[in-house]
Amino acid sequence: MSDQETEDMPKFGQTMYNSGMAYFCEGFDNKSTSPLVKWIIEMNLLPKRQRPKELTLIINSPGGSVHAAFALIDTMKGSAIPIKTVGIGLIASSGVLTFMAGKKGRRVITPNTSILSHQYSWGSRGKEHELFATMREFELSSERMLEHYKKCTGLTEKKIREVLLPPEDKWLSAEEAIKYGIADKIVEVY
Q1: For residue 11, what are the domain limits?
Q2: 148 labelled catalytic
Q3: How confident is the model at residue 74 (pLDDT cuts 50, 70, 90)?
Q4: How many domains does the chain have?
Q5: How far is CA 95 from CA 50, 55, 59, 66, in A?
Q6: What is the pLDDT of residues 109-151, one digit of tens each?
Q7: Which of 61, 93, 94, 117 is catalytic?
Q8: Furthest C-alpha separation in the chain
Q9: Quick one: which of 9, 27, 120, 132 could link to 142 by a disulfide (CB 3.0–4.6 Å)?
Q10: H or E element, residue 42
């Protein structure tokens, strides 16, 4: 195959990207979420007549950095184009936070998706004064997570701490995700 033929072939995923769909199947960090942040911004910069009516973010992720997740979530919330989220396979930790940030009524999940919700966790080491500074960031991040859960699920803080952010990890079925306001609908095909 010539170099020209290779250049003319569509790149894998380009059709999805151009039609307003993205698939995220990695752990959350700045490197993995950066393409999604850029994609949302780029789609919003298109002339209105060229913009998709909706963006679809398909998530299958074990979670990761809450800071990277909130950078993506803030970009999603600032999008003029509504963002549908689709949960498949596993949406855990930061994956749940991001999934819930989709447009209400457009957060769909497949029946075999596993959902993991848990309290904020973070490891740190250093000198005493560094650990105290880190503790402040831990508290702020925990508060951000709780507020995000409240906005996205409509549950009270007490209920969230009881059923979604108890001391132990909380695994949920697709049906429970609907019951607790994490998802809006279970779908076979999206």
Answers
A1: 3-186
A2: no
A3: very high
A4: 1
A5: 29, 17, 7, 9
A6: 999 999 999 876 666 666 777 777 777 777 787 899 999 999 9
A7: 93
A8: 63
A9: 120
A10: helix 30-45
Q: Which of 61, 94, 117, 118 is catalytic?
A: 118
C-alpha span between 60 and 67 (Å, rounded): 18
Burial class (CB in 10 A: 0-12, 13-18, 19+), 3: exposed
Q: What is the CATH number of the domain that holds 50?
A: 3.90.226.10
Return the percentage of the chain with pLDDT > 70, whole number: 89
Q: Which residue has the tokens 């800071």?
A: 67
Beta carbons within 8 Å of 62's beta carbon, 6+ residues apart: 27, 90, 92, 93, 95
Task: Give yes or no: 117 in active site.
Answer: no
